[in-house]
Amino acid sequence: MTQPPLDEILAQCLDEIRSGRSTVEACLARYPAQRAELEPLLRTALWVAQAEAVRPDPAFRAAAKTRLLNRIRAEEESRRAAVPPVMPQAVTFDLLHRLRGWIRKLQPQQPRRRYAMFWALIFAAIALVAGGGGIAYASTDALPDDALYPVKLALEDAQLLFADPEEDVQLHLEFAQRRLEEARIMAQQGQTEGLERALENYEAHLQAALQLAQQVGAQDPQVWARMAQQVERHQQRLQTMAQVMEQQGLTEAEQRMIQTQERVRQTLEHVHRFMGQHPKDMPSTPPAGPHGPKSDESPMPHPKGPMPTAMPGGKGHGEGRGQGSMPEDGGQNADQDFMSGDATYPQSTAAADTHPAESPKSTPLGTPVPVQGTPENHPEATATCTPAPTQSGDHDASATHTPMPTPTSTTMPAPTMTATPSGDHDQGDMGGGHDR
Amino acid sequence: MKRASVDEELVRRAQQGDADAFGQIYERYVDDVYRFFYYRTLQTADAEDLTEATFLKAWQGLKRLRVGPELNLRAWLLRIARNLWIDRHRTAKEEAPLEAAATVAASEPNPEAALLEAERGDELAAALAQLPERLRDVIVYRFVHGLSHKETAALLGVNEGHVRVLQHRALQRLRRWLEAQAQED
Lengths: 436, 185
Hints:
- The complex is a heterodimer.
- By secondary structure, chain A is mainly alpha-helical.
- Chain A contains 15 helices and no strands.
- Chain A folds into two domains: about 1-50; about 75-370, no CATH class.
- The model of chain A is unreliable at about 85-95 and about 280-435 (pLDDT under 50).
- The longest helix of chain B has 25 residues, at about 160-185.
């Protein structure tokens, strides 16, 4: 009878010894022909397994824990402050209440708006009714790369649909604030695509708020003051985030945030200008930065996709191109810009050069579509999150070591792990494609 | 209470933002993560920095970790650690090719490091220092962390048969090195 290869015999013996089902001697007795080769290998494995492994210095261990927990607590605090939780009951009640008013107001001559509302309601209905509120609640914490993220956006859209224009300005700014927080998390996790999605959506909300503010600012000039205050906060937040990204060596994220900062700065300039103007002097279309709409006929961006603004109120939901408002070659141009963009950050170029409503990356209703030209697994996703270790050289390694035992025992320590790793789904975020 | 059950409970609490629960996770696995880096870098300072970075990254990714009977928190943390280690090499390569040569050298057999560790009295570190990274990984996962062939294969992205072959080769080299050391002594 042929014996298995030595590496298999070795592996089998090691497993049996480790689990206590066998000993070195028993294994060697079973494979007398391999004894001469097998024994030193088993003894070596035992020596390694029984060597008292190094431990971190207790002072480092305690200090690192303190630093870690302080940072976590600060982040949690900041997260809670930035994104107030939305309770499902409140959402449900609010939406139903608004739904009654909306049905009363809906006019048959607004087919486009009705169509958009229909789809937003479908999303909201799935989230709120079929999910019993659970999905809606779960989606409040969803991030751009989560399956529930579209539900979160749909719920926000539903809120926008049912709100008055004055409320819409506020809602757009609130949702923009959420996108900033999502962008921060995405950047820290090295999720480039998620970061892009969050910032693109942020910019679209900001522009939608600006456009709506022009409509309602005539009746309520305070809209401008409130908007200025909030956009200034966004600006500060972006600046802080960019600084943190820089400190952490997340260059791509930092550059993307600087790009968004520029959009915010331009928006703020317009807000300040409008604040000092009589409403009749205001232009009918808000400036949108160097690549935004350039005329009254330019479509208003929808945070999630190609939604021309044929409807009043700037709520931006439509079934596609709207009434000649979008250039016929808009999508093509956007695609060309995108394809000829900066190779190191193609999404950034797309976001800067492509109006969200024209973007070839989006579909109606905001269905998430992988960004064209973006690697499925961004190879630098985790790399950019790696803080460079310091090379202080002040540490005394010997202080953390203990003498090695001699390789004499014939039993191996019992394994401390019984469960095996599941599929890559759990580790995928951390894996960044390395392990596949 | 079983280790896996405790881990599940701690992860659930940490996912709700409970920093203390994450502190307990840290206490349970900081030694494992530190050893992972120490036996690769053979530098205490580097191992400490990378250990801290691993837990920070773990916190950031914790909400995406599925909690259930299949949860293997240590393997998950070691995977983060491994990716961080790979990233560090790659970043070093991209940003400073000359410096990278020195950094990446740590992954190759390193007689100087082995000598230094031997002088410090850490024979295991010295023995591991003379192994190429792939073989060192297998030895560390299998005999320092006590991972199974299957778990080691998953972490290395190879099949179990490959792990068995690497294990055999690594133990042979270690054995030869130990014998040479014994003769020198």
